[in-house]
Task: structure prediction
Amino acid sequence: MLSQMPAPGHTAQTPLRSADDLRRAMRQPRGAPLRLETGGLDRVLRWDAPRALVEVQSGTSWSALAARLAQTAPALERCLAHGLLAGSVGDAVAANVPGPDGRPLVALVEALSLVTADGELRGTSRARDAELFALAVGGHGIFGPAYSVTLRVDALALAAGRARTAQPPQHRPGRAAATRRIVLLLPAAQQDSFIAEAHAIADAWRTPIACLEVMQTLPEQETVLRWAKQPYAAVTLQLALPRPLGACVRGAQVCRALIDCALAHGGSFPIGTTRDASRAQLAHAYPELESVMAEKSRRDPEARLCNPWYQHHRRVLDGAQLEVRWNAPQAASA
Result:
């Protein structure tokens, strides 16, 4: 589901089944905030056998697509069983998540159709409106909700066949009321030293790492807001939060400390999943974010496309993010 909230007021939930439904929803007058229920956009629209392309509506689940491609890409179902490519195709493309082989999903996308702020359905690809294609893939929906995605079936089958599963998770015994997840990106040569420092940082804040997973990813150069600027080890940390009131605040603080550590090791973080990053950290890892936001405003001057991802990052860039404070690590470990 993708939220579009043009202005304060009553929220209407609009179930969608077709491109016309999506266009009508986007053309609703301002003052009527909208939540687009894309679960109904779950059909396979076109199968182009000679070119090995399949077009699916954006709400199509990867599991449904794997069932449809069982003969062509049999390894895809095995990838899903290992936790790769969860959710819908449209959401995965909007975040440009790693594909089965660790390469960002843009490598598997032939074309994309989306409804822009003016309510028009626009097709885009590397050959047709390439600028919008590069903005929309990995653009987290701020240039318009996707109606359909055309995937390269042969490339998908090949990626699934050489899937890179995460290394076996490292669990640390202990009890906690909850966990907080953060994903950080490290050059392979810096992986081990970062992990050692990450444990020290988390322990100093009394938020030990309960579970750690590592997956190798590959770079891409096609999208504007790309996270995969070089080969990275994607390190997923589950932080064991303490029980006292204020645990959420401490969790945010230690996440920022871990982001600083990753940046110091020449790493980064996925902008789609790391909401604790400060303005300075965003500027360091994603210097292009300001220009992306400016281009979004140029294409959508009335701010009709205003989903939670956009709202959060707009607040951070505008300096409206609340300062997060807790005891210093030395005091916390006393």
Notes: The domain at 2-161 is CATH 3.30.465.10 (Uridine Diphospho-n-acetylenolpyruvylglucosamine Reductase; domain 3).
